[in-house]
Specification:
With about 220 residues, the protein is of the alpha+beta class. It folds into three domains: about 10-85, Beta Barrel (Elongation Factor Tu (Ef-tu), domain 3), CATH 2.40.30; about 105-185, Elongation Factor Tu (Ef-tu), domain 3 (Beta Barrel), CATH 2.40.30.20; about 185-215, no CATH class. The protein has five helices and twelve strands.
């Protein structure tokens, strides 16, 4: 689990095909504060990857064919910055929101507007199937960065990026037309599913209560 608070913008140094999958090499300084561990999870542009090899200046991880097909990691240019976050440790502050690192789909930056004082408004076009989970003032993860939805339109949504976010992450380098990884708020997904189940069977909740009580 992650929080969407990026620790560092590393660099995607290599992507070697392995059948339908690929081995990724990420250069970074994440292991300087606390050594990386084999098997630990790291969010790379919002994608949860497992450290398979530890390097003195980064790590290697495998990306499955599913990951390459559903995220931007199969197309990110070598040498490009990638947002990195290690999995949250129990007892730490959750400064962003609950992020699983399981990308729901990719969207595109449709417009960026300089708002003055170093802030930038960015408008994104998400896949149609994800729009129902995006709400004004709700949370969304873009390339691994936890952000608050500023407003929602019929075919997109916008977020406001402050100078700190623009400096700390790779989002400041985005240009109109660039693809991004999107993960919607997991709570929104569960609420939507509960509504669907209730429509399918209005008595589902009551049946579940009766089952828990051992009456059915």
């Amino acid at each position: 689990m992650f929080t969407g608070l990026v620790e560092e913008a590393g660099v995607l140094a290599a992507r070697t095909p392995r059948g339908t999958s690929a081995r990724l090499v990420v250069r970074c300084a994440l292991g300087k504060a606390a050594p990386l561990e084999l098997g630990e999870s790291i969010s790379v542009d919002g994608v949860c990857l497992t450290v398979d090899t530890i390097l003195k200046d980064g790590f290697e991880a495998d990306a499955s064919s599913e990951t390459l097909a559903r995220t931007t990691l199969g197309a990110v240019p070598l040498g490009a910055p990638v947002n990195l976050e290690r999995a949250v440790a129990v007892g730490e502050r959750l400064g962003g929101h609950i992020v699983s690192g399981h990308v729901d789909g990719t969207g595109k930056l449709s417009a960026r507007t300089d708002m003055g004082a170093g802030s930038v408004k960015m408008t994104f076009a998400p896949p149609a199937e994800l729009r129902r989970y995006i709400a004004e003032k709700g949370s969304i993860t873009i390339n691994g960065v936890s952000l608050t939805v500023n407003d929602v339109a019929k075919d997109g949504f916008s977020v406001m990026l402050i100078p700190h976010t623009l400096k700390k992450t790779s989002l400041g380098g985005l240009r109109a037309g660039d693809a991004v990884n999107l993960e919607v708020d997991v709570l929104a997904r569960y609420v939507a599913r509960l509504i669907e189940v209730d429509k399918e069977d209005p008595n589902a909740e009551w049946m579940a209560r009766l089952a828990r009580a051992g009456l059915v």
